[in-house]
Write a structure and sequence with these properties.
single chain, 401 residues, alpha/beta, Aldehyde Dehydrogenase, Chain A, domain 1, Aldehyde Dehydrogenase, Chain A, domain 2, 2 domains, seven-stranded mixed β-sheet, six-stranded mixed β-sheet, 15 helices, 39% helix
Length: 401
């Protein structure tokens, strides 16, 4: 095992300490030292140049504020019977720059030592976060044994070695990534949490949207949910449902919405030319394979839309990214059920009450839908994610009777 760790590159931590992670004591969830460390990290990150202009980094810093952490802790009531599982091995997704930090911080808050395999892609956000972490650890040295941020060539031997160190493994990524990592055995009592390929969509009540004075804000919020990350996150909507029995009203709402979003995108969105080709191919594919698809005229390459005449269980298989959206006119929520299968993660909404959507999901009990949030909150991470309560699953219960 020692020579295997020599092939690992460390952004935070080192190989000598990594050999001894199983000797580090687990903590109780929301340990005071961890709370103080994250509060320091929030302050340090906010002060770094350019962070306030990057919404994903600013959101991360905001998430770690003492008031935010206190609110999270208060959700759990008495947690004196919980203690971290030990060592958590996180395999971060390759498509979302800051996801690794949320996974790491969740592991810390639940009381674990954390080994995080970072994305191979060199996101600037990763370097900024590592800078803030290193400075914060210098002020909180007792937390250092609990954080290892690493990169390595995806060798199964290294996956095997790290998996055998851990008590819980969190695999963020596509189904193929999960399949590969599960070939590496865990310890007998090891726990696997897999965050697989998912999709998400938006529901907008057409009439209430047209009556809303906040159309520009909704456009900016929808942009943050989608184009800010090129729709690469599972929680980024790829389908927009226009809810309403009056088709004329729905069409007016549709036209108004896309006009506002196009203005926002023209000011904020930059994409690679290859993305335009990818979207055009997706548009041609769905038009050839699905009956009744209406292609909305393409004035430029920022936004492309395909309107569906019906929804089916495989409709979301035709979703794309980088400003490509499916659309559907629904007279009732029941028409949405086919896309609420096991792969469905998040519904974002505007112009409709949260309780209406919550009751719809509870009563119909689809295999999917784990989150219902307003437009603008699709990417906001919480300790309840993908249907998992992460604090509960990343800690163990000690019973005394």
């Amino acid at each position: 095992m020692p020579h295997i760790f020599d092939e690992i590159s460390f952004l935070v931590g080192d190989s000598n300490k990594l050999h001894h992670v199983n000797a580090v004591s687990a903590l109780r969830p929301f340990d005071d030292e961890i709370i103080n460390f994250l509060a320091t990290f929030s302050q340090v990150l906010f002060r770094l140049p350019g962070v306030k202009e990057r919404s994903d980094l600013a959101s991360l810093a905001f998430w770690c504020r003492p008031a935010s952490l206190k609110a999270m802790k208060n959700q759990y009531g008495d947690i004196n019977h919980l203690i971290g599982r030990g060592v958590a091995f996180h395999i971060a997704p390759s498509n979302v720059a800051v996801n690794f930090a949320y996974s790491l911080f969740t592991g810390l808050l639940s009381g674990n030592v954390n080994i995080v395999r970072l994305p191979a892609r060199d996101f600037e956000q990763i370097n900024i976060i590592c800078t803030a972490l290193s400075h914060s650890l210098s002020l909180h040295p007792r937390v250092s044994p609990y954080i290892y941020l690493i990169r390595y060539n995806k060798k199964q031997e290294i996956n095997n070695a790290l998996s055998l160190l851990c008590n819980v493994r969190l695999i963020w990524g596509g189904d193929k990534t999960i399949e590969v990592l599960r070939q590496s055995p865990l310890r007998p009592r090891g726990l696997d949490l897999a965050f697989s390929d998912r999709h998400s969509f938006t529901i907008i009540d057409a009439k209430n949207y047209l009556d809303s004075p906040d159309k520009i804000r909704i456009a900016h919020n929808f942009y943050n949910d989608t184009l800010h990350s090129d729709q690469t996150a599972c929680s980024s909507p790829g389908l927009v449902i226009w809810l309403g029995k009056d088709r004329t009203v729905s069409k007016n709402a549709q036209e108004t919405f896309w006009q506002h979003l196009d203005r926002v995108a023209s000011e904020r969105y930059e994409f690679q030319p290859v993305s335009a080709v990818t979207k055009l191919m997706a548009l041609c594919m769905i038009s050839a394979q699905v009956d009744g698809v209406v292609q909305h005229p393409v004035v430029h390459n920022r936004l492309m839309r395909a309107q569906l005449s019906t929804l089916s269980h495989d409709s979301m298989e035709y979703r794309c990214h980088s400003g490509y959206f499916l659309e559907y006119f629904a007279a009732s929520l029941d028409e949405v059920l086919p896309v609420c299968g096991e792969k469905c993660q998040t519904i974002t909404y505007a112009g409709i009450e949260k309780d209406v959507l919550r009751d719809f999901v509870r009563n119909k009990a689809p295999a999917g839908v784990d989150r219902i949030v307003p437009i603008g909150q699709a990417l906001q991470f919480s300790l309840q994610w993908d249907g998992y309560d992460l604090i509960s699953l990343l800690s163990r219960t000690v019973v005394a009777v």
